[in-house]
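Session log. Operator J.P. requested a structure for one protein chain; no other inputs attached. Running the standard single-chain path with token output.
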Amino acid sequence: MAAPGQNLAVVVHRAGDLRLENHPIPEPGPNGDRVAIEPGVPREMDEFCKTGRYNLSPTIFFCATPPDNGNLCRYYKHSASYCYKLPDNVTFEEGALIEPLSVGIHACKRAGVTLGSKVFVSGSGPIGLVNVLVAKMMGAAAVVITDLSASRLQKAKEVGADFTIQVKNETPQEVASKVESLLGCMPEITVECTGVQACIQAGIYATRSGGTLVLVGLGPEMVTVPIVNAAVREVDIRGIFRYCNTWPVAIALLASKRINVKPLVTHRFPLEKALEAFETTKRGEGVKVMLKCDPSDHSP
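Structure written below.
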């Protein structure tokens, strides 16, 4: 337990070496509020910032990117410009989930999801699930999602997926064929959330000619994909890097109850049990594991 006046924090020293340490309490400026923080803050007003794509700025500071220790701590100081006030009907837990939700918002906007879209989401982890939530909210008529895990696919059904495919030993072409069979057509949009080479291949084969594949998951720098198949069918391949201009949208969606992120949280731990929380995630249990940094916060 942290002593009074101490700031208990989780610090990564190297891969597999997490430690609980006491750090000094940072001094905030005047006028604090209940807020959700956007972790990426550009240090300079460069051309990317001027055009609204500040997430691409090479000057960006990002919380928890070394050498920064991140904000798994009792107290954390952050740029006021990237702190967003939470309405009274949005909980801190929902506020913490704005970060992954923002990935879904940015990906679905880049993909062009709109009324009536048929969407294929590859990977039913937390990022795949938020893409299901956002795609359905933006008007997708049908969403099919794939994963290796039956329990994660069940969670996808709970948050709005219309169809699920548990992938076993199928080839990428066979996965694409199953997607088409379930939707009744090839999807206009594929959102790839795993970064796995075979899944990227399946995403290309599955996407309708003239459609869009968005690469969200990050795997190896070099992968082998059927790029000519995509090229001759005019399948647009787009990347995303984190998010930008999404926090106000996400807060509005949560406040209006248009999106419910609460089912994503399957485990909760106090900050003192952070190492246990990370081991739970490492074992592949649950979906989102929430750390409670405020010792007085006992609400779900």
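Operator note: DSSP finds ten helices and 14 strands in the chain.
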